[in-house]
Amino acid sequence: MKTALLLIDHGSARAKANELLAEVALLVRALSGLEVVEYAHMELAEPTIAQAFEACARAGADLVIVHPYFLAPGNHSTQDIPRLAGEAAARHPRLRYRVTEPLGLHAKIAEVVLERTGLPSVRDQPKVTPAA
After folding, report:
1. How many CB atoms are closer than 10 A to CB 23?
2. Among residues 10, 41, 67, 76, which one is catalytic?
3. The domain containing residue 49 runs over which residues?
4. For 97, which of 16, 55, 58, 114 is 20 to 30 Å away at the CA?
């Protein structure tokens, strides 16, 4: 079985914003070792979800894991993306898919927030042991 990962963000009218997801897909591919890591934008830009499913099918994927690249479980990640993924998957009957939760609450996200803001993590603080 060949698994593909499909990262989906909202999409933007700004090309630079859309390019970020392509870079994330490259990083995930390198880190995961997966052969097929695609990305798509829900709206406003290409590749679309349908185009990305087509790329996964052409690459020989049997299963597409759809990951909404969103922080919160709002309407886009819980309703729109599953609907659009289902419509795209329907064009490829042999292709199974499942939609994951969005990024959501995770300790590593908190670590990134602290790193980006330049604030230390208590985990980074040296441990001080009292003198005997």
Report:
1. 10
2. 10
3. 3-104
4. 16
